[in-house]
Amino acid sequence: MSESLDSKKASLDELTFELEKRNARLAELEKILDAQKKIVEELKNKVSEALLGFENNGLTVTMKNGKVYISLDEKLLFKSGSYEIDANGRNALRKLAGVLEKNPDIQITIEGHTDNVPYNPGSGQLRDNWDLSVKRATTVVRVLLEGSKIDAKRLTASGRSEYLPVDERNSADARQKNRRTEIILTPDLTELYNLINKY
User: Fold this and answer.
1) Structural domain spans, the chain
2) Residue 36: φ, ψ to 5°
3) Is this model's pTM higher than 0.85 or not?
4) SS3 of residue 97 by DSSP
5) pLDDT per position as a tens digit, 114-150
6) Which end of the chain is more exposed for a tag (fewer CB within 10 A), N or C?
7) Which residue blocks in the chain are alpha helix, DSSP H?
């Protein structure tokens, strides 16, 4: 009976030790997640401050899934069917570039989005909405890099065409919402991934 009790106590001690290890790991993960959340919140605030005057005027800044999303309406950056950025759009992007320069650990993805109306290229280089959405994203990349110290390795340009609408309705208002450029800012999660892989 004494041997059985000793065996059960050893087993309980082992389980307690494993539980303590898991609790320590969980506490460490929560600490890193809280730090990442704080970084994202601070970044959102810095972006909002830099783009004061543009927010709710063709531009919105939101937090979602641990990232900062800057959504720019077509009218803020481009004329319909064009990928040339006007002066007002360039001004907004230069202000954003200033924030991105000071946050070198942030990865930057630029996504071009169109509505579902087929693009009529005429005799130009672009064939369809895919081409237009990609060309708009690369134009934004170039403006962000112009005269800034942002490392080009941090930037990714992609086109989503009409396939990721924010409004599924087939109305003029919905189409206008869907014609946008999104700049997605992702904090460096290396520390978190390293910790997860360690266990």
Assistant:
1) 11-17+21-198
2) -65, -40
3) no
4) helix
5) 999 998 777 678 899 999 999 999 999 999 999 999 9
6) N
7) 2-50, 74-77, 87-101, 129-145, 172-178, 190-198
Quick one: CA dihedral 78, 84, 87, 90, positive or negative? Answer: positive
Rg (the chain; Cα; Å): 24
Neighbouring CB atoms inside 10 A of 82's CB total 14
CA dihedral 109, 168, 74, 160 (to 10 degrees): 30
The SS3 of residue 23 is helix
Count of CA atoms in the C-beta half-sphere (13 A) of 92? 27
| List of residues 6+ apart from 37 with CB closer than 8 A | 66
Helix (H) or strand (E) holding 68: strand 67-73
Per DSSP bridges, beta strands 155-161 and 107-113 are parallel
| From the candidate CATH numbers 3.30.70.120, 3.30.160.20, 3.30.1330.60, 3.20.20.10, the one assigned to the domain spanning 11-17+21-198 | 3.30.1330.60
